[in-house]
Every structure is written in structure tokens, then in C-alpha cells.
Recover the amino acids of this structure.
């Protein structure tokens, strides 16, 4: 959810060194004038990787820390970079510009965007246009290789672009001890199949058993890499998913989607997209009938639009 902010930061025209987990490389590849440094999560090795690409003169370097972790601040400090980030996890002494977090809960995209605004005030950089009130959704276009891979996958599985519903009935980890998976994917799949729609899922290999248990009647596709999965979501009629990484990947390609909440808050982590709808709330999953009717309505609206 930092990508909308990074896109605005790229408007400065200044060179950027972007640091993150390996999967993020593909998502930022279209940003101009940047290098990408893979971080593995160990301070010593991450410091070594970062130092390898830094110029000898670090006086003009500025670090912008989106993660709230102590380790991220340590890596930049040990690399000799003066940094700006939110006060958290006892790391204020490691930051040159420690920023207080928003007093009122806000969407995660706006939380990270607050760092861009604070950095502009502290560092006096300019963008091509004044910073907007909120960042626009970030639009990611999968490359030709990913498009070809998905086109072949659809052909092999007798699927047609825009004629299948992609579900993602898994979510890793817990949120405050609660399972993040909507409990009715199996029933939803059965009812959509009975209504004549094709329902598919494409979890990573390590989640395939969990997915089959959650929705045994859905068509299971072979696992895809991140970029190809984004293309699969983009070509679907729409995506039904939990509040998870799939929701935000679908938002990046502006896929039509329905995101289901039950233990997290849409106000904080809803997909940053004009093509996304949310059902449920922080303390209540949506009922199966509500989700099914919304799915059917979305399909009718799409069919009506395509016939115009």
C-alpha cells in the first residue's frame, strides 16, 4: 500500500534506491530512475546489500522509512543514512526526523502518504505538481511474459477472459488471534456454480491444501508467479477475496473485486481502488446471502456494460 506514495515521490525526478523483499521488485519496476535492493530481513546482510549500492558521499542521502520496525531503522542508521519515519518500537533515536503517527486512525495508504508530506516539508523537494489531498491508485501493468503465461493457462483450462470468477479463500496468519478467512467460500462456490458461472482459484503452492479445504468445488489452477497472478486477476470477471495480499494485488491492476472483512477494518485496509467493493466490518463477517447477491449484481452490471 506504499505504491501510491512511491509514485508521487518519483515525480521529484530524483534517483531512488528502493529496498524491500524480493517479490516487490516486479511491482516497482515501472517507476522511473530507481535501483532495487533486495532485503532478506537480517540486519547485517541487509546493511551489506544496501552499502554496496550507496555512493561514497552520503551527505545528500535521505532515507524514508515506511515500515514501523526497529530493524528497518537500524539498517539505515548502520548504513550511514539520515532517515525520516514514524516514531515507533523505541526507534526515535535512530531517526534524524522522527514523525508522530496520525492521532486518529486512518487508512494505511494515507498513513504512508503522511510520510511523503512530512518529507516534503523537511527536505523541501519539489514534484511536477503540488501534492494532492490523497494519492491516486497505483496502476500496475503485468508484462508480456505474464500476459502470455495467463493466456496459455486459460486456454489449457477451457477458460475465457472475463468469463470466470477468481476466488482467494486463504489468508496467512492471524489478526489479534482471529482467523482472517471468510468461512463461507465453499457454499458461495457451490451456489455460483449452480447458477452457471465458472469459479477458479490459484493459490501459491504452500496454500493449495488450505484452499481446497475452504472451497473444494472451485477449479484449482496451477500456481503462478506474482506478476502472472496479477494478470489472472485483471482478466477475471471479478475477484472475491479476504482482506489479504490478493485484495491489494487486485487493486494494483484495477481488477473488479469484492473484498470480505470480519476481523479487520475496511476503513484501514480496504483496497485502494475505484473498482473494489467491500462487505463486512471489523467485528462481523458478511452473511453468505449478502455476498452471493452482491456477486450476482456485479455480474449483471458487467454484462450490461459489455453489451453497450
Amino acid at each position: 500500500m506504499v505504491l501510491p506514495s512511491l509514485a508521487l515521490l518519483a515525480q521529484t525526478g530524483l534517483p531512488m534506491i528502493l529496498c524491500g523483499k524480493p517479490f516487490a521488485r516486479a511491482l516497482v519496476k515501472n517507476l522511473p530512475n530507481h535501483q532495487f535492493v533486495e532485503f532478506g530481513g537480517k540486519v547485517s546482510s541487509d546493511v551489506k546489500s544496501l552499502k554496496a549500492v550507496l555512493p561514497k558521499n552520503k551527505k545528500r542521502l535521505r532515507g524514508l522509512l515506511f515500515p514501523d520496525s526497529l530493524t528497518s531503522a537500524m539498517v539505515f542508521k548502520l548504513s550511514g543514512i539520515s532517515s525520516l519515519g514514524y516514531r515507533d518500537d523505541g526507534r526515535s533515536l535512530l531517526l534524524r526526523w522522527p514523525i508522530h503517527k496520525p492521532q486518529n486512525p486512518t487508512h494505511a495508504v494515507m498513513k504512508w502518504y503522511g510520510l511523503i508530506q512530512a518529507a516534503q516539508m523537511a527536505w523541501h523537494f519539489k514534484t511536477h505538481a503540488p501534492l494532492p489531498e490523497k494519492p491516486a491508485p497505483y496502476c500496475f501493468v503485468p508484462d508480456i511474459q505474464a500476459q502470455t503465461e495467463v493466456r496459455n493457462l486459460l486456454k489449457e483450462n477451457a477458460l475465457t477472459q472475463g468469463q470466470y470468477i477468481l476466488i482467494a479463500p486463504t489468508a496467512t496468519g492471524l489478526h489479534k488471534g482471529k482467523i482472517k478467512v471468510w468461512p463461507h467460500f465453499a457454499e458461495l462456490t457451490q451456489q455460483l456454480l449452480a447458477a452457471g458461472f465458472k469459479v477458479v482459484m490459484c493459490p501459491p503452492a504452500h496454500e493449495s491444501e488450505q484452499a481446497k479445504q475452504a472451497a473444494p468445488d472451485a477449479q484449482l489452477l496451477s500456481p503462478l508467479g506474482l506478476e502472472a497472478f496479477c494478470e489472472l486477476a485483471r482478466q477475471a470477471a471479478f475477484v472475491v477475496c479476504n482482506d489479504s495480499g490478493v485484495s491489494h494485488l487486485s487493486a494494483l491492476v484495477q481488477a473488479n473485486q469484492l473484498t470480505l472483512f470480519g476481523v479487520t477494518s475496511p476503513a484501514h485496509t480496504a483496497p485502494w481502488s475505484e473498482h473494489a467493493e467491500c462487505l463486512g466490518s471489523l467485528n462481523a463477517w458478511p452473511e453468505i446471502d449478502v455476498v452471493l447477491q452482491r456477486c450476482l449484481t456485479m455480474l449483471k452490471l458487467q454484462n450490461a456494460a459489455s453489451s453497450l
